[in-house]
Amino acid sequence: MPLAKMPGVDKASVNLATEIMTVEANDSVTSEDIAKVVDGVGYGARPRGKSVEEELEEKNEKKEAHLREMKRNLTISAIFHRATSLYRNGGYGWNSNASLSKPNAKSS
What we know:
The protein is of the alpha+beta class and 108 residues long. The chain is 44% helix and 12% strand.
């Protein structure tokens, strides 16, 4: 049964970007009733103890922390790549084993 057709529910909507469902219902509907209906159609639901703004701020902080970690890992990888590249190439930007001189010209 769709949540919006549940007895006592006046309005139900989901913001897909924030993954937050908002339900307007009378006092006969509990958050557990709503969670059972949502779980029954294959989605997870839990009552929200925080305001939408607090949840969005928390989610954004987690994303920013993850991005900082990814940037740090990328920087470390770049440093190690450059260090191993310099070591492998004898400290130069080319293969130090290759001959840099012109080949001997054949005399006729």
